[in-house]
Amino acid sequence: MLNIAYIGFGKSTNRYHIPYVKERSEHFHISRIVAPHIDKRPSDRAKLEATGTVFSTDIQDIIADNTLDLVVVVTPAPTHFAVAKQLLAAGKNVLIDKPVVATVKEITELIDLAKQHNAFFMPFQNRRFDSDFITLQHVLAAGYIGRPIELELHMDHYRPNDAKQSGGVMETTWFDHGAHLVDQMVALFGKPQHVAYDLRVARDLSASLSDQFEVNLFYKDAFKATIQSSEITAVHYPKWILHGSKGSYIKYNIDQQEYDLKTGIMPGDTGFGIDAPQDYGKVTYYNQNNDRIEKIIPTINGDYGRVYDAVYETLVNHQDKLVSNEQLLTTISILEAGASAPSPHIVNFND
């Protein structure tokens, strides 16, 4: 049994973390929650207090608690570096929401600090367990499309009135959504050779924060991955478009966990996270006899709680981390480079 503390008790903690931890009560107990405003969710607080969770407003309560096995940081992104640094310096194991930090300098300092104190440190990359991402991995591994040539990944919304007028780079759509999409590409294909960036302000032209991006990641063997996100797309693109030497795969719509959680359907409820058949992806390919085959690929169920399963395996059974330090460094370096110069621009990532 691992004792967890959370820093932050807002929407993300209560939507993307706690429901999945409750499903794993044989391995985790929520011991503490620290947040500046702990009375905003009185019913949620009462349920946790009934199981022994202690609420407070001071991070020092976590630092002084030697019974804790893991601290999960779910605070606003600009605070991540300072909070993580304080926890790692105290020798705490840290799981932290994305985007972790803004620069390679900051992430290198945190990784080095974790090594110095023999502490666990990893980002909460729950979208490695999106159903559509897991299914895309299956399509690649099965060899349906042959050698990958071109991949498009979209994360689109229609939020025309949510533009931020000002703020830091970590509050841009590039760092918010891009942190997930870049990580998925790094998990699949590793470090790219070159990256071409197009980051723009699309909703409110007077705003200073970019809210739309198209980024091309170029790999060896003539493979290119394109990640795109828009906050003003009324009709969405397919989530995944994959073309290869033998065929293509197209998948519409996002993981159903997202929809269900927003509706109040929780992990463990009947039908949670299950994709509708009309949203299954389709692969079209040519077999060895040059027959054209069209095949529906049922979506493999996702489970954001598998991040916690992976953390448990690392802390208890000493397995490798789900997100390696090298992958984390690569993701942050790609994010930072995108915001380091006016768009469009190209960055060389060859060592």
UniProtKB/TrEMBL annotation:
InterPro entries: Gfo/Idh/MocA-like_OxRdtase_C (IPR004104), Gfo/Idh/MocA-like_OxRdtase_N (IPR000683), Gfo/Idh/MocA_oxidoreduct (IPR051317), NAD(P)-bd_dom_sf (IPR036291). Signal peptide: none annotated. Residues 140-339 form the Gfo/Idh/MocA-like oxidoreductase C-terminal domain. Pfam families: GFO_IDH_MocA, GFO_IDH_MocA_C. Residues 2-122 form the Gfo/Idh/MocA-like oxidoreductase N-terminal domain. Belongs to the Gfo/Idh/MocA family. This is Gfo/Idh/MocA family oxidoreductase. It comes from Weissella sagaensis.
